[in-house]
## 1
Amino acid sequence: MKGIIFTEFLSLVEDQWDEDMVDDIIDACELPSGGAYTSVGTYNHTEIVNLVIALSEKSGVPVPQLLNIYGKHLFGRLAHHYPHFIDQSLSLLEFLEGVERYIHVEVKKLYPDAELPSFETKRLGPNKLEMIYRSSRHLDDVCHGLMEGSMEYFKAKGTITREPLEDGTKFIIDLTE
Ligand code: HEM
């Protein structure tokens, strides 16, 4: 997993809690990296899971909620780092359809060792999109947060629901306008 995923997570912890919390959760986990991440490095994705579990234990906030908050925060940071991937889309649904077809394809060119999920999209109506998420990392809550973050970014209103499938998770993005 790319370092940006870790550096953004730790900066979120520092913003929402403090630097001591960052040190505490790194100390609580036996991390092969020792908790020193660079944005271009690649680290085992279990490290993020362990850090989130440690944060949950210390903060009392449940893991799924932390992963969701993190996904939402991460979208803002990705939008900041890669504005050109977003500005090409006119609407939220068009943008979401482009994650698999365009954005993650470009990400893979930039970072050939990136481990990306796969998405299968289907328009259910002009304002309704089905998006099936599949990943061996099962970061459903992060994915949900990324979708919520993009919804806010595009100033769209509506609901995001999800349903587990045998081999993934089906998300339905249903906009009200
Ligand atoms: C500007 C937009 C985006 C950029 C630049 C981007 C880039 C990335 C990068 C660099 C990673 C890390 C890969 C790794 O650690 O090896 C990643 C992972 C991920 N991305 Fe995106 N992404 C974008 C938008 C989205 C959106 C909107 C979604 C959800 C619909 C999404 C879903 C995910 C998920 C769930 C992962 C975690 C890996 C996994 O589940 O297997 N991304 N993305």
## 2
Amino acid sequence: MGGAVCPGELPLNARYTPRSDEVDLPVPEREMKAPLRLLALSGSLRQRSYNTAALEALAVLVPARVEVEVFRGLGELPLFNPDLEGQHVPAFERLRAAVGRADGLMIASPEYAHGITGVLKNALDWLVSGEEFIHQPVMLINTSPRATHALAALREVVTTMSGVVVEEARVAIPLLGSGLDRDGILADPAITAALREGIVHFTEAILCLQSE
Ligand SMILES: Cc1cc2nc3c(=O)[nH]c(=O)nc-3n(C[C@H](O)[C@H](O)[C@H](O)COP(=O)(O)O)c2cc1C
């Protein structure tokens, strides 16, 4: 995919730095020859998870020609064991296929004891040895701004796995204790503005990376 507006050189694993006048621009649909497919991974299995709700809200807020799949199967993955690699593990095959067809990943994880959740780490461990994750642009969503350890840990894991963290697409929204579900998030102008801005930066970065 060529012709995207890119802010100069953008080596993989480098920071994406938008021009200041790009911030409020809509996603350049003219640059998209096919819909962008984004995969959303939540590190929480909780029924009323803020992280899952934020991803579900993002799926509503994305512009036309951007599709979001909120992946539901992380809780079905067995605990990762290298001995299982190469064996028929349906839950992993679904995850691997979803990552493989994605143009970018959106990841939101709670902080558990200053780390990311076991659910998310387990899923990422399953993906380490494959090719699907490599060079994937990644948007990080933090629903609890105090949870700095998990964010740092997630950035380290993603980068180690050769994912490309798009720093300017990172969104921090104070959902902890808010009681908001997806619809509550969508009704909050400040939170939706933050999510929309993150999506604009993320899609711009994906187009730039794909044009290289
Ligand atoms: C086992 C456990 C450990 C937690 N550890 C931390 C922590 O270290 N730091 C923190 O800020 N919050 C911590 N929390 C709070 C969660 O991050 C918070 O409840 C978050 O909203 C859960 O995300 P969810 O709503 O998507 O399930 C912990 C919660 C649990 C259940």
